UniProtKB/TrEMBL annotation:
A Pfam family of this chain: ABC_tran
InterPro entries: AAA+_ATPase, ABC_transporter-like_ATP-bd, ABC_transporter-like_CS, ABC_transporter_ATP-binding, P-loop_NTPase
Keyword DNA repair: no
Domain of life per record: Bacteria
Annotated protein name in UniProt: ABC transporter, ATP-binding protein
Length: 283
């Protein structure tokens, strides 16, 4: 199901969180909203999932307006908030059970569905453990597993790996990819991690100060810049120059004077953002 977001605007008092957000999410894809802290990602996702009302703008899930069909649409989406909102005193199983009841799963399918999720999340051997006793990665898997318990067509994840160590982060990425592949679930995530957006998503929307400033497929966005970056550190400053080959970068390096340090590396999405805004995202 395609999602169309048209001209979203949102203010908190006199703070403008969203100036004008317009984008489209294609069915069965993984799309990342990438931007620095405060860019408006959480506000956007909260509006898309019905937690917040926009001041202006429209959202369509397929042909259905969210405004007039919110109940129906909420039943086909799964939401993973930025902070794990599990009940720490309940067991893993009970956390899933509460969600199953809330989402109106039929009594005769609840047990099987929970078992399926426990296997899929790798939490089957921890099902009777208090959720508060799980590791950070396991808690995250529980929250994501819970969000797909009712087999949503679309899964929203707000900063899915924030605060996790790099190895756990990679496990979560594989896990999210599997959900997209195995269940044909459309995935929309927000992140300020460049690597996360690059490795996970089919499409990236750069969001900055409440506006979409660029979008596209990660590889295409990068190739518009070149293949390699020559980073020159000189007199406390960093200069970035872009090239199609390492040979060209080396030739250019020879022309520079007063180089303290130099590095040639692959272009990444941070470079695209830096060129657009003059700032870095992942700080
Ligand atoms: N409840 C609120 N009251 C007032 N201002 C808010 C509120 N929520 C967000 N803001 C402000 O709105 C802007 C967008 O915030 P938002 O949380 O959507 O950004 P974000 O990109 O998700 O960043 P982060 O990852 O830090 O949450 C920021 O300037 C933020 O300070």
């Amino acid at each position: 199901m395609q999602i169309k977001v048209i001209d979203l605007k949102k203010k908190y008092g006199n703070i403008t969180a969203l100036k004008n957000i317009t984008f489209t999410i294609e069915d069965k894809t993984i799309t990342a909203l990438l931007g620095p802290n405060g860019a408006g990602k959480t506000t956007t996702i909260n509006i898309l999932t019905g937690l917040l009302k926009p001041d202006e703008g429209e959202i369509f899930y397929g042909d259905f307006s969210f405004q007039t069909n919110s109940k129906k649409i909420k039943s086909i989406i799964g939401v993973v908030p930025q902070h794990n909102n599990i009940d720490r005193d309940l067991t893993v199983y009970q956390n899933l059970l509460v969600h199953a009841i809330l989402f109106g799963l039929k009594k005769n399918e609840i047990k099987n569905r929970i078992e399926e999720i426990l296997h899929f999340t790798g939490l089957i051997n921890h099902k009777n453990k208090k959720a508060g006793k799980l590791s950070g990665g396991m808690k995250r898997r529980l929250v994501i597993g819970r969000a797909i318990l009712h087999r949503p067509k679309i899964l929203f994840l707000d900063e899915p790996t924030v605060g996790l160590d790099p190895a756990t982060r990679r496990h979560i990425w594989d896990f999210v990819k599997n959900i997209n592949k195995n269940f044909g679930c459309t995935v929309v995530l927000t992140t300020h991690y460049i690597e996360e957006a690059e490795l996970l998503s089919d499409y990236v929307y750069f969001i900055d100060k409440g506006e979409i400033i660029k979008y596209g497929e990660p590889e295409k966005l990068k190739s518009e810049m070149g293949k390699y970056v020559l980073e020159i550190f000189s007199g406390g400053k960093t200069i970035e120059e872009y090239f199609e080959s390492k040979t060209e970068a080396i030739e250019r390096l020879k022309q520079h004077e007063d180089v303290d340090l130099a590095k040639i590396r692959d272009v990444n999405l941070e470079d695209v953002y830096l060129k657009l805004t003059g700032r870095k995202i992942d700080i």
